[in-house]
Amino acid sequence: MSKLNRRDFLKLSGCSLIGMTLGSVALRANAEVAKVDPTSPQASALKYVHDSAVEGQNCANCVYIQSAEGDWRPCALFPGKQVSANGWCSAWMKKA
């Protein structure tokens, strides 16, 4: 049985921690982000819909949207989920 000295242990631990961190970041980047379900309690409370019926108001021009591209984008009101760029909710606020 070989002995593992302190220096080797720290190198191995550090490399393992870095590998796990980078691996989880890569997995999250490739994972499909869930879309907001309009029937969920939070979406219902905000009256979220995938297609806006209010002219000139949609998620694409709302201050809460967190991306400038794509049909589905992250929204600050729905962490970890994406909203339709054409969607709308009662918290809509014009982007400056």
Share of residues in helices: 25-40%
What is the fold named in CATH at topology level of the largest domain? High-Potential Iron-Sulfur Protein, Chain A
Structural Rg = 21 Å
Order of helices and strands: HEHEE
The CATH superfamily of the largest domain is known as High potential iron-sulphur protein
Overall 3D shape: elongated
Write the topology of this structure.
Layout: H1 6-30, E1 34-35, H2 41-45, E2 72-75, E3 78-84
Parallel strand pairs: 1-3
Antiparallel strand pairs: 2-3
Domain High potential iron-sulfur proteins family profile: 30-96
Organism: Opacimonas viscosa
Keywords: 4Fe-4S, Electron transport, Iron, Iron-sulfur, Metal-binding, Signal, Transport
What would you note in describing this structure?
The structure is a single chain. This protein is 31% helix and 14% strand. By secondary structure, it is of the alpha+beta class. A 3-stranded mixed beta sheet has the order 1-3-2, with no helix packed on it. The model has no long low-confidence stretch (mean pLDDT 84). The protein has 2 domains: 1-31; 33-96, High-Potential Iron-Sulfur Protein, Chain A (Irregular), CATH 4.10.490.10.
